[in-house]
Amino acid sequence: MDTLIIGGGLSGLALAEALEAQNHDYLLIEARERFGGRIKTVFHDAGYFDLGPAWFWPGQPRIAALIDHLGLQRFDQFADGVLTFEDERGQVERGRGFASMHGSRRLKGGLEALTQTLAARLPDNRKRLNAPVVTLAHSENGVTATLQNGEKLKARQVVLALPPRVAAQMTYAPALPATSMHAMQGIATWMAGQAKAVAIYDRPFWRDAGLSGDAMSRFGPMVEVHDASPTSGGPYALFGFIGIPPQHRTDAEALRRDVTAQLVRLFGKEAATPKALYIKDWAFDPFTATDVDKAPLHAHPTYGLPGTLRGLWDGKLQFAGTEVAPQFGGYLEGALEAAENVLLTVQGNGTGHAHAD
Question: What is the pTM of this model?
Answer without folding.
Answer: 0.94
